[in-house]
Amino acid sequence: MFGFLSTPFSSTWTTTNTLRFRHQLCLGRSKRKNSQNKRFLAVASSKNGQPSSGEGLTQRDAKQKALQGVLQQIEKTYGRGAIMRLGEMESMKVETTPSGSVTLDAALGGGYPRGRLVEIFGPESSGKTTLALHAIAEVQKAGGVAAFVDAEHALDPAYGSALGVDIQSLLVSQPDTGEMALEIVDQLVRSAAVDIVVIDSVAALVPRAEIEGNMNDQQMGAQARLMSKALRKITGSMSRSQCTVIFLNQLRQKIGVLFGSPEVTSGGMALKYYSSVRLDIRRKDTLKDNVGIRCKVKIAKNKIAPPFRVVELNILFGKGIDTYGCLLDAAEELGLVIRKGSWYSFGGSNIAQGKDACVEYMKAHSDFVSQLELQVRGKLAGMVIPREMDVDVEPVYD
């Protein structure tokens, strides 16, 4: 019935079709392989930043042209520098001003950042105003202009002068309302003529509605709204004018807190968000003979260096931060000053026996102090101080 399958013709037909099928199969595999290679080359070229075809090149050119057009339109509307690429900015490093304590500067990453917001909060008599006055003194030493907004009406000029503040050139304002205080701060910052502004304190910034109202009137969140509105205006101006604004703040207690800390700062949440640095200062102990207090400063927030560092420093009554003690502690921690037993040595020569005697030696040798501070700050900044800048130490053995 199917005898024709065994004929030579049928055998030839079958062989021919088989070869043809195999040839088509090989062609299909070759086409698929070529298409895979093309896709691989296209992906590789796109990873290398090269267009894979003329169509891709045209699309990229169109996007770049559109980007240039919108950048030019923004600069035409808002002025040159309104938008730029991050790598084209003049300086991406945040400049700092000294705090008056070398150890605190090391923890902050160099000092208080310029053009940023700083909050210093803590209990009463913990050293908040002292830190602020030292910051003002350091700015004035560098030839800057400082302003102090005394909302608490409690500034002591004699104490500020003892800390190194130039009272004659210090700008002071004692505003009647919180709106007046923050408007003054806004105008000072916008002027770009002031380098640092201190507000003492947030809790004393009373909204006008509270002053004009009665004691039994309830203004819910009036101070928080005032602070939030003011900080929105001030923050951008600070960055442009490179003016540092320091807010001093008080602590309050939340009611009904069973777990966690019940402490909260005044003025709402806005100041916490806008601040680049937040310092929590606490009174730890009283120094011997009641000459001062030992304070612990915790960096609760820091946007220019690692946060949560803790620094301890002495504040002497009527004199401010013990700068000699802070410098000695920093030099010892960095290995510039070696302590063996009770003896302190520098450069292989003994300085004095005991910390108090070493501090007295530093007070009597200003050249040694200035050179030691230069080496400490240089090491903190990662710089190498040349050997010829080393200072000769007069050894003390009694």
Automatic annotation (TrEMBL):
InterPro entries: AAA+_ATPase, DNA_recomb/repair_RecA, P-loop_NTPase, RecA-like_C, RecA-like_N, RecA_ATP-bd, RecA_C_sf, RecA_monomer-monomer_interface
GO molecular function: ATP binding; ATP-dependent DNA damage sensor activity; single-stranded DNA binding
Record domain RecA family profile: where: 93-251, 256-326
Signal peptide segment: none
Domain of life: Eukaryota
Pfam families: RecA_C, RecA_N
Chain positions covered by the region annotation Disordered: 42-62
Keywords: ATP-binding, DNA damage, DNA recombination, DNA-binding, Nucleotide-binding
Gene3D superfamilies: P-loop containing nucleotide triphosphate hydrolases
UniProt GO BP: DNA recombination; DNA repair
Transmembrane segments: none
Presence of the UniProt keyword Magnesium in the record: no
Start-end of Polar residues biased regions: 45-56
Family according to the record: Belongs to the RecA family.
Name this protein carries in UniProt: Protein RecA
